[in-house]
Amino acid sequence: MNQCVRITLVVSACVPVFKRLIQKNAQKLAIEGVGSVSAPNALRIIAHGDHDAIDEFIDALYTGCKGIRPSLIEVEPFVKDRDYRGIFRIIG
Predict the structure, then answer these.
(1) How far is CA 82 from CA 16, 25, 61, 75, 78, in A?
(2) How many domains does the chain have?
(3) Which residues pair with 39 in a beta bridge?
(4) Residue 18 sits in which domain range?
(5) What per-residue confidence (pLDDT) applies to 22?
(6) 8-state DSSP, 40
(7) What angle do CA 2, 7, 33 make, to 5 degrees?
(8) What's this model's pTM, rounded to 2 decimal places?
(9) d(CA 34, CA 17)
């Protein structure tokens, strides 16, 4: 079963590192959607994919990378509002 969520992620630093982490995990887990920088240290992500893949994607965000963990993660259900054409893009 597919699931769509909106994730707000706040990091203290290294937004480019998190953008790479997000892109890599989205591709690995076959998640489609879009991510964007919504503030200097905040990322907003719309992710759509298999329920288990979304859970694993969120787990990877909580884990962080290179010793850097997000200071805030908010996950909320989201109604898929467009066709993401099977890929994940990060804008900005």
Answers:
(1) 26, 21, 24, 19, 11
(2) 1
(3) 42
(4) 2-91
(5) 92
(6) T
(7) 50
(8) 0.90
(9) 17
Q: Which amino acid is at 59?
A: D
21, containing H or E segment: helix 15-28
Q: Where are the alpha helices (DSSP H) in 29-70?
A: 51-63
Token pair, residue 50, equals: 């298999």
DSSP letters, 65-90, are BTTB--SEEEEEE----S--TT-EEE
Read off the pLDDT of residues 33-52 as tens digits, 9 standing for 90 and up: 999 988 888 899 999 999 99
Whether 48 contacts 4, CB under 8 Å: yes
Q: Is residue 37 within 8 Å of 9, Cβ to Cβ?
A: no
**Residue 66 token pair:** 């290179």
Reported residue count of the chain is 92
Residue 65 to residue 71: CA distance in whole angstroms: 13
Q: Any idea what the CATH number is for the domain that residue 64 is in?
A: 3.30.70.100
